[in-house]
Amino acid sequence: MKWILIVFGVLVGLAALIVLIGWMLPKDHVATRMGRYRQPPEAIWTALADVDAMPSWREGLKSVKRLPDRNGLPVHVEATNDGEIPMETVESNAPRRLVRRISDAKLPFGGTWTFEIAATAQGATLRITEDGYVTNPLFRFMARFVFGYTGQMESVLRSLAKKFGEQPEIGE
36 and 127 in contact (C-beta within 8 Å)? Predict the structure, then answer.
């Protein structure tokens, strides 16, 4: 019986330590990743801008539900394995720059993803920059030390390469 109380005490202490560390971590973060493709910028733009087609190529995206446009720009809800995430496009400058924002302030995380497409001699690059925040200290700890801030960006870049039949080339 005593060892059960010791194990329980250690687990409670560990949970408290994780939350304390989470409180000490900054709420805001900026992370970026870049992919290289043998496609013209317009092909990459088309894939990113066509939200209705994204579930056909983007890993982990089950479906997309379109909502009425806001300020003339698309709004949609992404259904993923982690739940539903409402997204709104806040900037669209084809075929170079697209900015999307999580549009639900009740979520324990949020921010923007900026997609920047640049032509190269071999095709194009796509840089995704996440300017995000995590409000929940437990999620903040997990994002920093377990999941990382770049996993979702890398998944999108890999999925895009697969859509084009290419091997992913991902860097910073």
Answer: no
Please provide the size of the chain in residues: 172
Residues 6+ apart with CB under 8 A from 55: 61, 62, 63, 64
Q: What's the average pLDDT block by block, 10 residues per block, for the chain (172 residues)?
A: 82 81 90 97 97 96 96 95 93 97 92 98 97 93 89 96 95 84
Token couple for 21: 């560390």
Q: Among candidates 99, 95, 150, 90, which has minimal Cα distance to 118?
A: 95
- The gap from C-alpha 86 to its chain's centroid, in whole angstroms, comes to 12
Architecture of domain 2-171: 2-Layer Sandwich (3.30)
DSSP one-letter string for 90-158 = EEEETTTEEEEEE--TTSSEEEEEEEEEEE-SSSEEEEEEEEEEE-SHHHHHHIIIII-SSHHHHHHHH
Tell me which amino acid residue 107 is: L
Q: Where are the domains of the chain?
A: 2-171
